[in-house]
Amino acid sequence: MSGQGVALGWLPLVQDLLAGGQLVSLADAPVTTPRGYFLVLRESTRLTGVIGRFRRWAREVCANAPQEQGGAGGTSAIG
């Protein structure tokens, strides 16, 4: 699908594709947003198995994301 469109991506998830040349950035600076990410579950949901692993992964990615002016990197509402 080379040259077939435009994609928006979260830098921690697409940086390897950018580095490998599979994706090309359209701008010199990333677009940031003050919005965050939320994981919403029923109170009865147990944080085990796939859900628990996803929650741990998401918290780790958010904690390790570089903070940018006006961006949500480094902050997380994933409890």
Automatic annotation (TrEMBL):
It comes from the Bacteria. SUPFAM superfamilies: Periplasmic binding protein-like II. This is LysR substrate binding domain-containing protein.
